[in-house]
Hints:
By secondary structure, this protein is mostly beta strands. The protein has a single domain, classed as Lipocalin, CATH 2.40.128.520. Helices cover 11% and strands 50% of the residues. It has one helix and eight strands, in the order H-E-E-E-E-E-E-E-E. An eight-stranded antiparallel β-barrel has the order 1-2-3-4-5-6-7-8. A hairpin with a 2-residue loop joins strand 4 and strand 5. The protein is globular. InterPro entries: DUF2147. It comes from Brumimicrobium aurantiacum. This is DUF2147 domain-containing protein.
Amino acid sequence: MKNLLIILTILLTLTSYSQSLEGVWETYNDESGELKSEVKIYLKNGKLYGKIIKLHNLKIDLKDAKCYDCKDYRKNQPVLGMEIISGLTKDGKYWEGDEVLLDPNNGKVYDAKLWITKNNELAVRGYIGLIYRTQYWKKK
């Protein structure tokens, strides 16, 4: 009986394991699959944030990688170090928020939903109304 309890405990532990969103995630170009950036995701005061900590395969000089089209305090600021995920709250298995996901390539801010997939990728879904696009990031 004792061995059965140990086996059940181990199985329950393995099936309930889920990867944390916190950490460094690699982002990829949707069309080419080329590595674009590394984003550090972290918790602050119970909310989820993310900032770009490294850029890859730039077609321009790093000094020119700025958010030229941003409409807020990030306008003309360097993309490296920029907060692109701001203040998501947990709702079940999802982290969600309104106007919390910035695309520094076009300056648009989206509603967002993030979650870990069965493949241990981070699904990052940005919404404008009912239209959405999902990217899949890989943990570094």
